[in-house]
Structures are given as structure tokens and as C-alpha cells.
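Render TetR family transcriptional regulator in 3D.
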Amino acid sequence: MTQPAFVRARRPEHKQQRREAILAAARELALRSGVRDVSLGGVAAAVGLAKSNVVRYFGTREEIYLELAAECWLDWSEAVTARLRDAAGPEAVVDALAETLAERPLLCDLLGNISTSLEHNVSVPAARVFKRTVLGVVAGLGEQVARAHPVLTAGEGLEVVGAAAGFAGTLYPVANPAPVLVELYAQDPDIAAACPPFLPTLKRLIAALVAGLPVIR
């Protein structure tokens, strides 16, 4: 299919609109088929541009998804903040972290791909922006976790938040298996029984960490 003629966006607001269109297309494709299966060409086709034109705004496919990941971290931070504003105790902390992650499948999918692929093939400036965003979110949420459950120090709250994200990134692909595994599980229920349910397992892992950190302090 012939790509439409590229018209350079010259005004800052037009450039931002085009960046947002690319991010929106990448988000929709990832929600539909998973982050790992989306190519730069697929994003370009979805937004109606050639690949060479997409890279005018994002150097690589990975940079597109790294920016989306930063946006998802900030969105998660807002959701957890709202949950913890009037909450107290370990159970409230566990529920706030785990349930908001479960409500955000794109974030969980991205978390599972960040270290293995999305932090590769990106520029130093893109990596810097992403890392500073994540570190800011984790530090801020760590303080909120410690306020909601004062048995934890701010440093331990930070550990809990970082671990919750790490647990989610590890559990999500296991709890949402590939089609061949779905078929296998349908044929072999004993193997399917070993596939952990996402939210209950995530809550259990976070709860164990919340309970255990003060003990080993």
C-alpha cells in the first residue's frame, strides 16, 4: 500500500500532535497483540506514515514504548496515590499496589519487556528521561506507602513499590500465556494448575515483602 505523502509538522503543537498520534497507535497495537509483537512498521502503518517518517519523532520502536512506559508509570502513581490518600495498614498498601497494577495490563506488559528489550536500542537521552521518571515515581510512592503503613521506613516503602512492579512484570506473561500454552493447558489441566493467577499471586508476594522487611531490618 502506498504511504501518503509526508507533510512535515513545523509548528511545535503540530509536532506534539504527531508524537501523540504515534504513541496512541503504538498503545492500541500493544493492547491488541502485546508489546513484543508490535513492529515499527506496524506502528507506522497504523498512524499512516512511513517508518522513515516515524523515526523523525522517535528514533526507534523501543523509544516509542519506553515513552509509553513512562506515561504508564505516572498514571499508576496517580492511581496508587488516590488509593492511599485515606488508607492505612498493610492490607490497604497491598491492595492499592496490586489492584491498580492488575487494572493496567499495558503497564504490566511493558514492565515485562523493559529490561529485556525496551532499554536496548534507545538513545542515552531517552533512557535518562525514562529512568528519572521511574525513580521519581518509586521514591514518591515509597514515601506514601510508609505513611500508610508506618511500620515501614521510607526506604522500605521504596523497596515495596519497586518489587511490586517487578513482580507484576514477571507474573503478567505467565498469567497471560501464549496461544500454544493456552492450547496445552486446555489439554493438560495438571500443567494448567501450575499457572499462577495474576492478582492473588501478586498480592501474596507483596504482602510477604511488607511483612518481612521489618523482620530482617
